[in-house]
Write a structure and sequence with these properties.
Helices cover 48% and strands 16% of the residues. The chain is of the alpha/beta class. The strands form two sheets. A seven-stranded mixed sheet has the order 9-8-7-6-10-11-12, with helices on both faces. The longest helix is centred in the last third of the chain and has 25 residues. The two termini are 26 Å apart. The relative contact order is 0.13. The structure holds NADPH dihydro-nicotinamide-adenine-dinucleotide phosphate (NDP). The site of NADPH dihydro-nicotinamide-adenine-dinucleotide phosphate has 23 residues, from helix 9.
Length: 444
């Protein structure tokens, strides 16, 4: 049995019932075969076994009291996956679906994503099965303070720097940071995505969505094309989706559909983003409202049907496994040319195969949504240097980083004989730097 297959088999045996982690590891390790074959010394150093085993997993109790005086207990997680190239870095997700498997898949992906940014950041991820929906501000604060009362001992500006993810936005980061500062008596860059008044970076909020569009623009440009007049579907209506829509529209694309977890809206005249922002960011309401406010727009409660709308470019920006094989086949049949992943692992392995085998330009999450973490690393640089860059400076750096990522994954894919296959290109380009660093640092 080949080395990669042996490692995967063992991983599944040692980590049973972790379906998402198995899925991410299978995608990554399978693409690394050509690199592993070139480097027999990796097997001798058990490099892959170490690569798929987190350096540290912290799981803890998060007790908190709701507004009625009732005590609740949630699970807290921080997976410090790999620090070969820099301090652990990766978001915190608060969502009822969170479990160890999901945090581990996100952490594993994060190692390669962070490497692709070209910045010195290792991979980590964390979160809780706490659901912020429907909670009062005081309840959110109580939960965040309790979460940080345990997490603080494991993180630090040079050790592990968490950020936001699903369910963790500016409000949650503020409460988490306040509690860290209170316990440690340190005002340092221990979390990113902070507010501008206390050490945050301009353009961090926009970064993942804008970055997704910048890398898509590069892929289009390389094929003599542009976003102008392209029909685009963006799933989700959270942080990534909203700012992807904003930038896509500013470059002349027509975004016709978006969703939240209760259904999608289709607006053949093009989504009016100010209305989406009002509903999602200001009112915290359901996207269904959009159809009630905009004439000609339709609502459908079945999220998956969003992929039956014909489009040139599909951008899944909500959550894992949103596009399965059947949805991918419908997208292809309807003429999709580009798929760029804003969310983490939104396409199943089968869906990815459908896209690649049909010649769709497929930009995988670890490359396409790396703009968020890259800008978090720019926030870390500003914090430690006591500097504050303008929106334009940060945005220009983000654009350069996304262009470099595109060029690097394109080059790696070509070098290994898989031209145009960016799953191979991203995994290989991200892995090589981490592998070199791990080999140089001995058996640790
Ligand atoms: P938000 O919490 O801001 O938004 C998430 C969106 O996805 C909401 O519209 C939500 O709908 C929807 N959603 C969540 N779960 C489901 C589901 N099961 N079915 C349908 N819709 C769902 O999160 P972000 O925008 O920050 O993150 C979105 C994705 O992007 C995640 O995969 C995240 O890991 C990834 N990502 C985020 C980065 C960032 O900088 N924020 C960086 C890199 C990746 P509802 O409101 O109804 O729950």
């Amino acid at each position: 049995m080949k080395y990669v297959e042996k490692v995967l088999k063992n991983l599944k045996k040692q980590n049973p019932r972790e379906a998402e982690f198995h899925q991410a590891a299978t995608e990554i390790l399978t693409s690394l075969s050509p690199v592993i074959e070139k480097h027999p010394e990796y097997e001798a150093a058990a490099l892959l076994e170490r690569f798929v085993e987190p350096e540290r997993v912290v799981m803890f109790r998060v007790p908190w009291v709701d507004d009625k005086g009732k005590v609740h207990v949630n699970k807290g997680y921080r997976v410090q996956f790999n620090s070969a190239i820099g301090p652990y870095k990766g978001g915190l997700r608060f969502h009822p679906s969170v479990n160890l498997s999901i945090i581990k898949f996100l952490g594993l992906e994060q190692i390669l994503k962070n490497s692709l940014t070209g910045l010195p950041i290792g991979g980590g991820k964390g979160g809780s099965d706490f659901d912020p929906k429907g909670k009062s501000d005081r309840e959110i604060m109580a939960f965040c303070q309790s979460f940080m009362t345990e997490l603080y001992r494991h993180i630090g500006a040079d050790t592990d720097v968490p950020a936001g993810d699903i369910g963790v936005g500016a409000r949650e980061i503020g409460y988490l940071f306040g509690q860290y500062k209170r316990i440690r008596n340190e005002h340092v860059g221990v979390l990113t995505g902070r507010g501008i008044s206390y050490g945050g970076s301009l353009a961090r909020k926009e970064a993942t969505g804008y970055g997704l569009i910048y890398i898509t623009e590069q892929a289009l440009k390389a094929r003599g094309d542009s976003l102008k007049n392209k029909t685009v579907i963006i799933s989700g209506s959270g942080n990534v989706a909203i700012y992807a829509c904003e930038k896509a529209q500013s470059l002349g694309a027509k975004v016709v559909a978006m969703y939240d977890s209760k259904g999608y809206v289709y607006d053949p005249d093009g989504i009016k983003l100010d209305i989406v922002k009002q509903i999602k960011e200001v009112e915290g309401a359901r996207i269904k409202e959009y159809a009630a406010r905009v004439s000609g727009a339709e609502f459908n409660p079945d999220c998956r049907k969003i992929w039956t709308i014909p489009c040139d470019i599909a951008m899944p920006c909500a959550t894992q496994n949103e596009i399965d094989e059947q949805s991918a086949e419908i997208l292809v049949k309807n003429g999709v040319k580009y798929v760029a992943e804003g969310a983490n692992m939104p396409s199943t392995l089968e869906a990815i195969n459908v896209f690649i085998s049909n010649g769709v330009v497929f930009l995988p999450a670890k490359a396409a949504n790396a703009g968020g973490v890259a800008t978090s690393a720019l926030e870390m640089a500003q914090s430690s240097g006591r500097m504050f860059w303008s929106f334009e400076e940060v945005d220009a750096k983000l654009k350069t980083i996304m262009t470099d990522i595109y060029n690097n994954i394109d080059k790696a894919a070509k070098e290994y004989g898989f031209e145009g296959n960016y799953v191979m290109g991203a995994n290989i380009a991200g892995f090589i730097k981490v592998a070199e660093a791990m080999m140089a640092q001995g058996i640790v």
